[in-house]
Amino acid sequence: MGKGKKQLTGWQKHFLGATGFSEDVTQFELRHFFSFEASEMEAIRTRRGDMHRLGAALHIGFLKMTGRALDAQEAIPPRLLHHLRDHMSIGGPDLTSLKSLYKHRATLYAHQQWAVVFLGIQPLTDRRARMLMAHLCKQAQTRSKVSELVSAGRSWLYENRILVPGQRRLSDLARSALSKTEVAMFEEVAAVIPESVRRQWRNEICRLHSEHQSFLEWLQTPPKRRSPSTMATVIAKISYLRSLGVHQYALKEIRLERQRGYARKLRGRRPARLRQLTDPQQTLELVSFLSITLLELTDVVLAQVDMRGAEIARIATEKVKATQLDQVQYLRLCLQEIESIIDQEGLSAKQLRLCLRSALPSEVRVRSLASEVRWWQSNDARRNRPLLKNILTLDLNGEEGHPVLAALALLRDAYDNKSTSLPANIAVEVASTWNDVLSSDDRKRAFRGFEAAVVERFRRDLRRGSLWIDHSLNHRKFDDMLIGPREWEDGRSRHYKRLRISRSIVRHLRPIEAGLTAALVGLAEAVDSGAVRVDAKGVHLKALAPQDEPEHLRTARRHLFDEIGHVQLPELIVEMDSHLRFSWNLLGRQPSSEAELLALYGALLAHGTELDIAGVAKMMPSTSKDRISECMDLFENEEALSRANTSVVDFLRNHDVAKSWGNGTLASADSMSLEASRHVWNARVDPRHRRYAIGMYTHVLDQWGIIYDQPMILNRRQAGAAIEGIVRQSGAPEVSTLAVDTHGHTDFAMAISKLLGFDLCPRLRNL
């Protein structure tokens, strides 16, 4: 393990705390844990005799693998014995156990203690147990399962060189931490929300909303397709939650991850089951569900308003372009008529002028495309007006004197009074580009143009943050989304240190300026040598000539494929799971049976392919649709899926062949389209394939591991997702450069990335 804090990779975590050797230990794992450095070999050779050296090697390797002392009495895998004999060039048996290897128990205990001291591992004293308890309590703020806390505790003990205790003691500590954290959260909720209010909420959502559905089941129903009826239903749910006063109680002391966990639990319960729960579980699930539901539904409304506004602008643009095409055809006919008039002989100058004037078009307006679109949007109000009435139902906030808030107040009065004319000389300046429409003599057209201008300005200002809603996840006030002032004052130094940022802006910019100067010098040299050309249109590189594939590469590929042979996907899944135990990460424990493992594999296939549950069940007769469906629900836990993926990336990066592909410091990110039903409310039409789809923004390491993915709405800027992927991923912490395309780049995002310690490198269009 070496000295200092031990860095633990994701695929190693399932070995921690094991009490014995696994029969299916792989050659890769043997090389990783039971191949020793020179200092370790020297220490092992201090033991007398090959049998004792073999035992010392077993103790050191087992500690490095599990963090526990080896005391299991069952047989040692023959593959491990053969590996140690070959690696250390010693003799020994082909088959033995720890009991046979040590004739005296005192020698076994002495070797155990010797290995622990040699590797610098400390016992779990009362003081260290309190430190572990504090760590588990901190982890319990975002994790809700005992198995997850046990795994986190083992990782902390291993990384801090503390001997991992048995399963029972760790489970007791994890349950105690979970209970302690839940009680603390319950006390915080009780201090904010009175008991009478909580009781009212519980009774209210258990009432019947319709003949066959309670209010709880009504709230549990997700939004369906993008339609006016869906929008009306979502707004009705928001109004109901606001009538309960949910928006008045902000649970700032409880992490959003934990609130989502409690809310997820209640989404699968019925009213009768909710009544059976006791505190603190009942209160935490109830309050978290109502709070998270209000936040998510508000974001759904805002997203649908934004999408509907974009759709209105797109429809207007298409109609204007069609109209312009008709005008071009009309002008072509006019030119043909003028040409025929010119060819007529015998016309006087007066007659020629009269004929030309009659041939000229009378109603062709020469405007820009944007002006025509604005003019077209002011023709009717059947699209913008319902959208604005939905916006008026929201509790919108903004900067003092914000024009959109004033405009919405004016529209609310107009709708209440059933007025459809815009008063002259209004004191609201929404957008100067709409002045030609708003100043029209037709005040009804001006009113419709004012509505369209407010929708356009609302969408823009909501995105940039000058408008916000307090009960929203993505559109809250910026100050509420950032680190709080008190927390920032307490932890400012820690954040500066973690990001390696100097408090002096001059000192921070000095190395950046030096790097920029060197890069500009290199660019100047490339321009002088003719490798790069710079002109008013940008920077231009010479096209790379295609290279011939070397013959030895084709030969190596053929030999490699012949060696591997044909591999079926199920075989690959089972083989990788035998190495990584990703099924343990997804289940949060060891699989209880072969049937459960097969159902989990079927759920992976159902999620990752175009097959549905029924199709996968037909391929796997030994399992059922219900079991596959239950396992598919496990993937709603994003943390478990992320841990399983991280173990795959760690395993991949430890192979020598992956190191030949890259060094793990470079990654690329881009969005791909996943086809979706047109009835999914946040699905958009993919402009390339003209099908409804959801975007999936994926970060891929230069060693070909997928280190992060995030669903997103198509046709949105991707710079935020690009930065978030590097900050949140855990499979490659040393990424220093992220390559993106034009959509994943802004100048502001490049500055933020630099402060976070990596470079955002865009592949600019036409470079």
The total of helices stands at 34
Beta-strand portion reads 5-15%
Class of secondary structure makeup: alpha+beta
Helix content: 55-70%
- Give the integer mean of the pLDDT values: 85
Shape: globular
**β-strand number:** 12
| End-to-end C-alpha gap | 48 Å
Q: Indicate the radius of gyration in whole angstroms.
A: 34 Å
Low-confidence stretches: none
Q: How many structurally independent domains?
A: 6
Can you summarize the main beta sheet? Answer: 6 strands, mixed
Written description of the protein model:
The protein has 6 domains: 10-175, no CATH class; 193-307, no CATH class; 381-470, Substrate Binding Domain Of Dnak, Chain:A, Domain 2 (Up-down Bundle), CATH 1.20.1270; 486-541, no CATH class; 553-636, no CATH class; 643-762, Nucleotidyltransferase, domain 5. 58% of the residues lie in helices and 7% in strands. It contains 34 helices and 12 strands. The strands form 4 sheets. Strands 7, 8, 9, 10, 11 and 12 form a 6-stranded mixed β-sheet that branches. Helix 34 links the parallel strand 11 and strand 12. It is globular. The chain starts with 26 loop residues before the first helix and ends in a 5-residue tail after the last strand. The relative contact order is 0.05.
